[in-house]
Specification:
mainly alpha, 4 helices, 7% strand, globular, DNA-binding protein
Length: 84
Amino acid sequence: MSTQSQAPETATEPRAINTLDELRASRRATINRAETARILDVDKRTLEQASTQTSPPAAGPRVVAPREKLLALLTNDAPIPTAT
């Protein structure tokens, strides 16, 4: 019987963010699509589809969300956009 151990958090591979509390506690500048999907409790593919409908395609394989802006949106701290 073999057991797998997880590597400790390193500077190059931070621990995954899975909850809103972990997002609040994190000091990272960005989070990836999979983490964003877990926090929003949606499938990653749903998030990918929604993002391609509202913004231009990504220039590369890595798409990230700014942590502070996402946190502000999820905690009602973001300014409400107004129509111009």
